[in-house]
Specification:
100 residues, mainly alpha, 66% helix, globular
Length: 100
């Protein structure tokens, strides 16, 4: 059962989804006009955000369709659009703050 969410051959893994999120967020941060302290603070949070997304994907058994959509997203808006394919429960879990 654990492997059920990985059933479709070639479907991106949760790690790939999280990696794409991280790459997009890093690119957005690099192009943002913010002071150095804010840049550093946001940059320091990105790995935890990436890991939380990966965990939400795994724990929520996201479908191959959602993972494919997110892994191929080319910007933040596309990533958010893909989130609409999640169930209400999966979206709620994604929006929960990370633990201590």
């Amino acid at each position: 059962l654990i492997g059920a969410c990985q059933a479709r051959p070639g479907a991106p893994t949760c790690e790939a989804v999280a990696g794409q999120f991280y790459a997009l967020a890093r690119a957005d941060l690099e192009s943002a006009t913010v002071d150095p302290g804010t840049h550093r603070a946001v940059g320091d949070q990105l790995p935890a955000m990436r890991d939380a997304l990966r965990d939400a994907c795994k724990d929520g058994a996201w479908s191959a369709d959602v993972r494919s959509c997110m892994a191929s997203a080319r910007d933040h808006a596309a990533m958010q659009s893909c989130q609409q394919k999640l169930s209400d429960a999966q979206r709620a879990a994604l929006e929960q703050p990370a633990g201590p």
